[in-house]
Amino acid sequence: MSKYQVNQKGYYGNFGGAYVPEMLYPNVKELQDQYLTILDSEAFRSEFAKLLTDYVGRPSPLYHANRLSEKYEANIFLKREDLNHTGAHKINNTIGQILLAEKLGKKRIIAETGAGQHGVATATVCALKGLECVIYMGEIDIKRQAPNVARMKMMGAKVIAATSGSKTLKDATNEALRDWINNPVDTHYIIGSVVGPHPYPDLVARFQSVISAETKKQLQEKTGKSTPDIAMACVGGGSNAAGMFYHFLDEEDVRLIAVEAAGKGVHSGETAATTQLGREGVLHGSRSLLMQTDDGQVIEPYSISAGLDYPGIGPQHAWLFQSKRGEYVSVTDDEAMKAGLLLTKLEGIIPAIESAHALAYLEKLQMDGHPTIVICLSGRGDKDLDNYMNYFRF
Ligand SMILES: *Cc1c(COP(=O)(O)O)cnc(C)c1O
Q: Rounded to two decimals, what is the model's pTM?
């Protein structure tokens, strides 16, 4: 087993574990006991593979970005998760989890969502499977993200407003956990990133690992070598990065670069650069790095991209950071917006602002020779058009 993967006890180095209230323990224990057996079963694997092909549209292309490569004097490939059904990598995870829920005999699905992307991906798979779906979302986010709320409702989901605290993602997460405690037998909680108590970080990483599994094969076909010199991805909770890194973790000559959102600057007070500012602590059921005050209060994060606006990072990333296997860097709102526009002009691809953070790091990347770089293009920018319009005044 790789030293970068979760151990028997649910830890990555010092990070991870399952810090949950006693009332939640049976739910988490059930998942811990069953997930590997289910994921390894032939029935699960064949259905997962079939839905990824016929419903999501996989494999997603590995596109050689010619004009971007010319500009940066490198051999740049984009892993096109933006072309997936519903427009991002999140669907890989929700498909996997809905099949897991079915095999566990669950009839009801709950999830939390911030900007609504994970809520939409969850409502989508519930419609696909005809399962009851309840999405918790902060009252403020419901107002800010009307189109995604409409999508969820069209697909039959019930959207419940979280009205406590700051009325955003972390409050929605608390409401979802409360629901799960009250409905332990029939309900599965679909977490949207590589965060939460063990086994969620490992579970979600396994579902997203299809990204690097395909990349390896596609690189072999296109370049004659299955590994790149550099693999890059943006990090909110860290699921698209975990998927992009998964099959390269033990290939120590592959540089793994994770790009966080610096917001208005790492030291501006408006940022989501977790590894730069974070200290060890427990958030949403696992031990990791998080932005907190001296007395342990979670600091509200900020990023122009809703998907990176998270005060923590998954435990595997905390471990990759601490062990120095990964390089954790950050770019600002301005740098990301510029990179998003640049990709649009050079390649005719409008990226999600989250993904544009990974692209933006090309400007600062120190590299030798003419490296092969794979970048996870985690999502498409259609959802961000208002943001692009306001920023550039189109
Ligand atoms: C949600 C989201 C992210 C951030 O989530 P991770 O778990 O860090 O991958 C990144 N890109 C897009 C397009 C998203 O929707």
A: 0.98
Return the SS3 of 75.
strand
Pairwise CA distance, residues 276 & 329, whole Å: 8
Nearest Cα residue to atom 10 of ligand 1 = 354
SS3 call for 298: strand
Contact 240, 233 (CB under 8 A): yes
Yes or no: say if 316 and 4 are a contact pair by the CB < 8 Å rule.
yes
Altogether, the residues listed in the chain come to a count of 394
Q: Indicate if the pLDDT at residue 275 is higher than 90.
A: yes
Ligand 1 mean position to 369 CA, how many Å?
30
State the pairing for strand pair 11-12/15-16: antiparallel
Other beta carbons within 10 Å of 33: 10
**Spatial CB neighbours of 383, under 8 Å, sequence gap ≥ 6:** 87, 115, 117, 147, 148, 352
355 close to ligand 1 (CB < 6 Angstrom): yes
Pairing relationship of beta strands 372-377 and 230-234 according to DSSP bridges: parallel
Amino acid (one-letter) located at 42: E
Give the closest residue (by CA) to ligand 1 atom 13. 379
Q: 373 with 229: CB under 8 angstroms?
A: yes
198, 319 in Cβ contact below 8 A? no
- Ligand 1 center–CA 91 separation, angstroms: 11
Question: Mind listing the pLDDT tens digit for each residue in 150-170?
Answer: 999 999 999 999 999 888 888
Residue 5 bridge partners (DSSP): none
How many CB atoms sit inside 10 A of residue 81's CB? 29
Q: Is 334 helix (H, G, I), strand (E, B) or coil?
A: helix
Give pLDDT tens digits for 288-347.
999 999 888 888 899 999 889 888 999 999 999 999 999 999 999 999 999 999 999 999
**CA dihedral for 63, 66, 71, 75, sign (positive or negative):** positive
* pLDDT tens digits, one per residue of 12-63: 999 999 999 999 999 999 999 999 999 999 999 999 999 999 999 999 999 9
Residue 386 exposed, middle or buried by CB count within 10 Å (0-12, 13-18, 19+): exposed
115 in ligand 1 pocket by Cβ < 6 Å? no
State which ligand 1 atom lies nearest to the alpha carbon of 240: 9
378 counts as catalytic: yes
User: How far is it, in rounded angstroms, from Cα 276 to Cα 291?
Assistant: 9
C-alpha to C-alpha distance for 278 and 292, rounded to whole angstroms: 7
